[in-house]
Write a structure and sequence with these properties.
Blueprint: H1 7-19, H2 24-30, H3 34-37, E1 39-42, E2 45-48, H4 56-68, H5 71-79, H6 101-104, H7 108-129, H8 134-144
């Protein structure tokens, strides 16, 4: 479902009208636990989102929006290697390049192909920045593309 056709989108739009007077200093003074509430942690990552211009209602509506648009199911399909890139009708595998080393073995061949594709894209970008005709770069790239399309 399109985001702008959800109840959460409507609620966010309504809340935005009253939100124009939001003051971050006032929110920190009012809520001593703001930094704790709006911080997220994952292995190797800490994100302090408390300094963003949002409140618990915005957070709740954004989570509702994700649920109503099927974002979690879409994310799960991505991690399962399903073809979610509708433009090229293939899987997206960039997330494999960020996998920890112990996770690399399971997806070794696919990860190797994703890395090859990434390096090819960098070479194409360098060629374009060096003045190469983009249509020639694009043709060369399409001929060279191999197995990522198979996924």
């Amino acid at each position: 479902m399109r985001a702008d056709q959800t109840a959460a989108w409507k609620n966010l739009s309504e809340h935005a009208k009253a939100f124009s007077s939001f003051d971050l200093r006032t929110e920190f003074a009012r809520d001593a636990g703001r930094a704790v509430h709006f911080s997220q942690e994952a292995p190797g990552v800490f994100a302090d989102l408390s300094k963003n211009h949002w409140d618990a209602k915005v957070e709740a509506e954004l989570l509702a929006l994700a649920q109503q648009t099927g974002l979690l199911a879409h994310r799960n399909r991505m991690f399962q290697g399903k073809a979610i890139n509708t433009t090229e009708n293939r899987a997206v595998m960039h997330w494999l390049l960020r996998q920890p080393a112990q996770g690399a073995i399971k997806y070794y061949e696919v990860r190797k192909e994703a890395r090859t594709s990434e390096l090819e894209s960098l070479e194409n970008a360098k060629a374009v920045l060096s003045g190469a005709d983009f249509s020639l770069v694009q043709t060369r790239s399409l001929r060279g593309r191999r197995s990522l399309r198979r996924l």
